[in-house]
Amino acid sequence: MNKKQRLKNEAEYELWIEKADGRRIYSFEINGKLGWKAKYLKEVDREEVTLKFWQEVYDQNNILKEIHEKYPVDTGHKKM
């Protein structure tokens, strides 16, 4: 495990979930002006190497409206 990278991720992200296989999913949220919010998620392997990074957009009723996968391939916004 890359301890330095893990500490950096833990400082940068508000929350994380640790999977049984050692992977982690880090996340943090940003509130928009009109009640919407964006959630940023980063999945890493047990060595803290980024596997996937994406954004989820929720409306004022907390309903998922869009997903934007940014890494490993930027797929653009996908409406739900």
Describe this structure in words.
The model has no long low-confidence stretch (mean pLDDT 96). The chain has 80 residues and is mostly beta strands. The protein has a six-stranded antiparallel beta sheet with strand order 1-2-3-4-5-6, with helices on one face. It has one domain (3-79). It has one helix and six strands, in the order αββββββ.
Brief descriptors of the model:
12% helix; mainly beta; 80 residues; 1 helix; six-stranded antiparallel β-sheet
Mind sketching the topology for me?
Blueprint: H1 3-12, E1 15-18, E2 24-31, E3 37-44, E4 50-58, E5 64-71, E6 76-79
Antiparallel strand pairs: 1-2, 2-3, 3-4, 4-5, 5-6
Order of helices and strands: HEEEEEE
The secondary-structure class comes to mainly beta
Query: How many H/I helices?
Result: 1
- Tally of separate domains: 1
Envelope shape: globular
Q: Residue ranges: pLDDT <50 for 5 or more in a row?
A: none
**How many DSSP E strands?**
6
Could you estimate the helical fraction of the residues in percent?
A: 10-25%
Distance between the termini: 36 Å
Largest sheet: 6 strands, antiparallel
Q: Largest beta sheet: what is the strand line-up?
A: 1-2-3-4-5-6
Kindly estimate the percentage of residues that lie in beta strands according to DSSP.
over 45%
Radius of gyration from CA coordinates? 14 Å
Mean pLDDT: 96
Report a brief summary of the structure.
Helices cover 12% and strands 51% of the residues. It has one helix at 3-12, and strands at residues 15-18, 24-31, 37-44, 50-58, 64-71, 76-79.
